[in-house]
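Re-run with default settings, no changes from the original entry. Doing this only to confirm the output is reproducible before filing.
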Amino acid sequence: MTYSLKIALRYFFSKSQQTVINRINGFALFMVVVATAALFIVLSAFAGLKDFGLSFTNSFDPDFEIQAIQGKYLTLENNTLSQIEALEQIDAAAPEIEEKVFLSFKEKNQVAYLKAVGPRYINVVEVDQLIALGDWLSFSGSEAVLGFGIAGSLSVGVFDYNTFLNVTVPKKNQKSLLGQDPFVTMPSVVVGLYQISEDLDKKYVFSNLEFGQKLLELEANQYSSLVIKTKGAVNKEVLLPLLSPFFKEPIRLVSRSEQNAALYKMLNVEHLAIYFIFTLVMIIALFNVVGALIMMILDKKGQLKILLAMGAQPRGIHQIFFTIGLLICGVGGIIGLVIGVLIVILQDHFPIIYVPGTSLAYPVLFELKNIAIVLGTLLILGTISTAWATRGLVKKVKAYAIS
């Protein structure tokens, strides 16, 4: 251990004869603790909110979706589905048809998106678990499952056999003769209502594949996409070459994050904004470290002359105060992280803060990467602030030696 480190540790743990210096040093350490704990807690809280928000879309969206690059529909041969499910990386696969449709019930109308699915669809997306009223599709007739938002707009109830929900789309062959109806309309019975989130509840209506193919005038082997559930985390670049040989036309593989690109982009921007805001708080806290170092240098002026007389070098004295600055940041950062981790764990297991107006505990998520982010930020900013506080110290020490 060099003399610079020994003296730095002594100055850090010992008290100055001047009370004001001790208070400045203590306040600087306290502010580093608070800023570090605050940054970690806020990042953990946002991670919890993000995970909570995405849980709604994750329960509705598949891991991957196969789409045709050219045209709107995929052609899927009879044995292709079983061959895809036989792959080691694939847990389940199911075809679906998605199309924008016009819904009408009595005198009310609304535009929505039809998702025509088969019985195997719930092996990929457990949408049947999201039914809040009524039942999931029985695949035995012209049935429909709506979101609560659509049902509210149209004033639709379940199992109403007196009035049908009409689903309308333009005819596939637009060259219809004069006087002919250019639209295809099919009636359906609402058998269930699902509830996920406000946006999704107003967007989708489910029906069976036969209903969708008849409505859109498609062949029996034509689908909009193929949804896939994978076994654990699978890389998109690895999966695409395995799936491409099963299709005659070129395909693209869309991951869950790409299916909700706008949502993920918004969450990432918000995460970055929160990080920068609380990094600014940490920068303000580190100004106290700068002030503490400057005051300590002035307080130890007499002792510095003694060190110089004993043979200490100006660079070594500069290293003393630079080390003290790093110790304040390091010790304060560790204490702050311990406090932050304890608060996050306490909130996760024994909630003390709840979402206003509800009995729902405020979500938090403990992640090791947040510890790395906080420590990295503190290390970089602490080094910069300490270097700025001790700038020019070598010249000052040389001046002390001359005087």
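Residues 19-58 form the longest helix (40 residues). The chain has a mean pLDDT of 86.
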